[in-house]
Structures are given as structure tokens and as C-alpha cells.
Amino acid sequence: MILSCTSVDKLVSTIKTAISKEKPDCFIAIPSNCSLDLDNFRAQLKAEDISFVGAIYPFVFDQDDAYDDKILVKFYKFAHPPIFFDENCKGSSDLKILENDASNSLLLLSHATHPYLSNFLVDLFKKFGASKKVAGGCTIFEENKFGGNLFDADQIYNNYIVLIPLISKMQISLYHGWKEISGPYIVTKANGQTVEHLNWESANQVFAGAFPDLVGDDYNFSDLLNLAREFPFGMYKELGECIIRDPIQFTEKGITFLTEIPENTVLFILQGAKKSLFSASFKAVKESIDLDAKIEDHLIFNCTARKITLEEDYKEELKNMSEVSLGNMIEGVYGYGEIGTNPFGFLEINNRSCLSISYYK
Q1: Could you tell me what percent of the chain has a pLDDT over 90?
Q2: Integer angstrom CA distances of residue 336 from 108, 114, 186, 257, 264
Q3: How far is CA 118 from the centre of its chain?
Q4: How far apart are CA 321 and CA 315, in angstroms?
Q5: Which ranges constitute the DSSP H helices of 258-323?
Q6: pLDDT above 70 for 260
Q7: Rounded distance, CA 149 to CA 143, Å?
Q8: Residue among 311, 310, 330, 312 nearest 320 (CA)
Q9: Average pLDDT, whole number, for the chain?
Q10: CA gap 173, 44 in Å, rounded
């Protein structure tokens, strides 16, 4: 449910009233610009013995609009307390607790630029394969007044990952709708999150050269970053849509992305159009709710970049998703990366995508 940031007393009272025996635990998403007194909020939830874990996002949304002054609360049953991992992923041995527990799925929330997120997903896949579906999204990564990206009753965590083990099962669907307009380009030199060479040439020059009518010879790094907001990169995937990667910085060294791009990766430059973006989110919601089982709840992780690209038309996307939801409430967050198990069981980090999750028994 979406709640206005009224007094902390009223918020906590509303949440306490809504809790059921079947779903006694809470996931709470708070916009980074929300006026909520988070320390007081956490303390009162703890005093009321309410089990919760929370994350900071740019916006939350429902079928009507996106909000930076309201919070999202979803109710689940945790198999056991969530597991937190710091920026070095210390505590990864705690994954053993998931091997024989009662959880059927894992909700994963991560700082968008966590240095070990990619490796962490590989470890998860090696340990569980397709036996536990995993889905979630990346939180705020900029500095914010709350001082972190995740929180629970004990503290506010910065640059952390959390795994929330759920009793419910998941049906996951993810699409983005961006189309290839240039490429292919081979990553011939990379260093972590920075691609230095494409096709054995400067990555910056290759990207600029793809737009001779938009970029002059005297371009600067700011010009390229602004262009990349409209034309992101996509990693080639043999089956299905490519995996989008968002540049976050252009420097003399090359193009830095939110997540690591290995050498020999094949990239394309992409462009999004309103029609194809709408079609992708519509398809994601439709496929996630296409179940014989009764849906208990529904949660969407949508990319902030989609909202920016669509401008005021983002409300139309929310409306379209609502129309195909078969009466299920459209609620979710706008974040900086969408994480999910693909149809072949592999875990992927995506950008500029719409991830739709349905929960069922």
C-alpha cells in the first residue's frame, strides 16, 4: 500500500493495523526526498515489535502516479530474518542458511554501484541454480539525507546488499523495449566498470562517431553523458532482448558503467521509443500474472531512466500496466537497476527495464 508521509505515529499505527497473521513482515520503500523522520520511524516500528526491512529509492508508484513524498509498504512472510552483506560481501557464508530453509524465493535489494554485486549474483546462482527464484532491484546510490540505501530496526546501511527470504513463490517477467540502432562493437579493453576500447579504438571516440550529426569534433565528456542518457548500450544476448548497460561517467580513461562489462562483450547502441517501451512493460506485467495459481501480491521494479525518457507519458505507462493487471494492485519503485532470474535460470542485472513480480503460494 502507498501511504502519505504524515506523522510517524499515524504511519506506524496504519501499518500495525494492516499486518495479518499470514503476512506479518514488511518491506518498506522510502523516496530519498521524503520528509519522513526515518530514525523515529524505525524506532517506533521496533517498539511495536513490527518486523521490517526497508530501502531508499528515488520514487514509489501506483497505477495513478509516482511519488517522492509517500512510502510503499508491502506485506510478506519471511522464512527467517533478512541477511545483509557489506561492500566487501562479508557474511557471504550466511548463504548456507538458505540451503535447507523454508524459503521459496529471494527478494534482493542492492546499492546500485555495489562493487561485488555481479560476483554475488554468480555465487547465488552457483549455490541455488534455479531452485530458488531471485528478483529485486537496485536502490539509490547518490548521497542522501538518510545516509544509506537500506535499513532495518538495528541500523541504516550504506552500500549494502540484502537478501529477504520469502515463503511465497515468484513468477518473474522482465522486458525493456529498447532497440538496436548501431553496432556491433566488441569490448577490446576494459577495467572493471570502465570500458576503455571498443573495436580496438577509444570507446569515447567510437561512441561519439556513432552520432556525427549530434556530436562535433570539439565535444566534451558532459556532451557524451547527455547523449548516453538517450542512447544507452546493450550487451548482446543470443536469445531475447539484449541486457542494457547505462553509462554513468565519461573520462579520459573511457566509459564507466553502473556494473562491470567484461572484455570481448558485444555491445550495441540502443534507442527507446514510447510505443516499444509501453509494449515492454505491458508484456512484463501480463506474463508475470499469467498463472493458474492465485496471486497473493504484485511488485514492480521500474527503472528511473524509463520515467525520464517518457517524461509526462510515464503516467500512461502506469495506466497501461494497470489495465492488464487483472485487478491486481500496481505498486512498485523506480530504481537504478532490475535484478531477476531469466527464463534459463541465470541471474542478470538489467538497466532501463521493467521487472514485474507476482507472488503466489
Answers
A1: 68
A2: 13, 12, 25, 12, 25
A3: 13
A4: 10
A5: 274-288, 304-310, 314-323
A6: yes
A7: 9
A8: 330
A9: 90
A10: 36
Q: Tell me, letter by letter, the H, E, C secondary structure of the chain.
A: CEEECCCHHHHHHHHHHHCCCCCCEEEEEEECCCCCCHHHHHHHHHHCCCEEEEEEECEEEECCCEECCEEEEEEECECCCCEEECCCCCCHHHHHHHCCCCCCEEEEEECCCCCCHHHHHHHHHHHHCCCCEEEEEECCCCCCCCCCCEECCCCEECCCEEEEEECCEEEEEEECCCEEEEEEEEEEEEECCEEEEECCEEHHHHHHHCCCCCCCCCCCHHHHHHHHCCCCEEECCCCCCCEEECEEEECCCCEEECCCCCCCCEEEEEECCHHHHHHHHHHHHHHHCCCCCCEEEEEEEEEHHHHHHHHHHHHHHHHHHHHCCCCCCCEEEEECCEEEECCCCCEEEECCCEEEEEEEC
Q: Which three cell numbers stand for residue 121?
A: 549474483
Q: How far are the Cα atoms of 80, 159, 228, 245 from residue 233, in angstroms, in the given order?
A: 39, 25, 8, 5
pTM attached to this predicted model: 0.92
pLDDT tens per residue across span 8-38 = 999 999 999 999 988 999 999 999 999 999 9
